[in-house]
Design a protein that fits this description.
This protein is mostly helical. It is 76% helix and 3% strand. The chain contains 9 helices and 3 strands. It has a 3-stranded antiparallel beta sheet. A hairpin with a 2-residue loop joins strand 1 and strand 2.
């Protein structure tokens, strides 16, 4: 009962934090909201209780579809909250906190799907999983930053900025943060591919080929974007499109494959 209670309270805390951020935007408050950060931090702490109970099973780690989805959402929120210590990114929580609540709700409602369990003595596979989760979290935050940047860019260039735009940092600050996130995520994704080829028996096995191919294409998309930015000065809408496209490939590759294998094709 403890994980269920912790999960329900966590969902309520995430919702309260998002509500406070929306209210702050309407009041045109500054780019920081310590109360929303505190609420979301408490929610993330309780979220971790649920994850610990569901993922750490006898003999290894249960990373079935809903556990993996909930873990990814938690990692994204924790990363965003850590960034708020140095960067004005708390408004990203308007989109990320509800997503974390939805991921946690799915975890509570459906639990395990009989997905793969990673043994404790996994020979490095756990390292690959952790690095992959970190890459996914960083690039997900980058995608949310890209969405916000796209809205800000359009409003400013149409000369009809809404009140929300006035509460955001300057455009050059937003773009600088976006490319730092992408560069970090690209480095982690590179390491995830390296550890995958090192620790997995066959990255192109039938149950992994779609994930591997789509991840490699996403890696290429982010690499081209970084090269285009530093060599040709790509920015603005181009950066937004590449970032969202790259993340869409990662989501389709990982969660799309797990969805099909564990929920659609799983034996009744």
């Amino acid at each position: 009962m403890l994980p269920i209670a912790a999960g329900l309270i966590s969902i309520a805390l995430y919702a309260s934090a998002a509500t406070r951020l929306i209210a702050a935007l309407r009041r045109e408050d500054g780019p920081r909201n310590p109360m929303a950060v505190a609420l979301a931090s408490a929610g993330a702490l309780l979220h971790a209780v649920v994850l610990y109970d569901g993922i750490f099973v006898p003999g290894g780690l249960d990373l079935g579809f809903f556990n993996a989805l909930s873990l990814s959402a938690w990692a994204i929120v924790v990363l965003m909250l850590a960034l708020t210590l140095a960067q004005p990114v708390v408004n990203l929580g308007i989109g990320l906190f509800p997503l974390a609540a939805i991921g946690l709700a799915g975890n509570l409602a459906f639990g395990t799907t009989g997905g793969p369990t990673i043994p404790v003595e996994s020979g490095g596979l756990d390292i690959h999983v952790l690095v992959s989760m970190a890459a996914y979290a960083v690039l997900s935050v980058a995608a949310m930053q890209a969405i916000l940047l796209g809205v800000q860019h359009r409003m400013l260039h149409e000369h009809h900025p809404v009140r929300v735009v006035h509460t955001l940092p300057p455009l050059y600050v937003m773009e600088g943060l976006l490319f730092r996130l992408i560069a970090t995520g690209f480095g982690l994704l590179t390491l995830a591919l390296i550890t995958g080829f090192a620790y997995l028996d066959n990255m192109f096995a039938q149950d992994l080929v779609h994930k591997t191919v789509l991840t490699m294409i996403a890696w290429g998309v982010f690499g081209v974007l970084l090269g285009g930015h530093y060599i040709a000065g790509w920015r603005g809408p181009t950066a937004v499109r590449f970032t969202l496209g790259g993340l869409a490939l990662l989501v389709l590759g990982y969660f799309g494959s797990k969805l099909v294998l564990e929920l659609v094709l799983a034996p009744a």
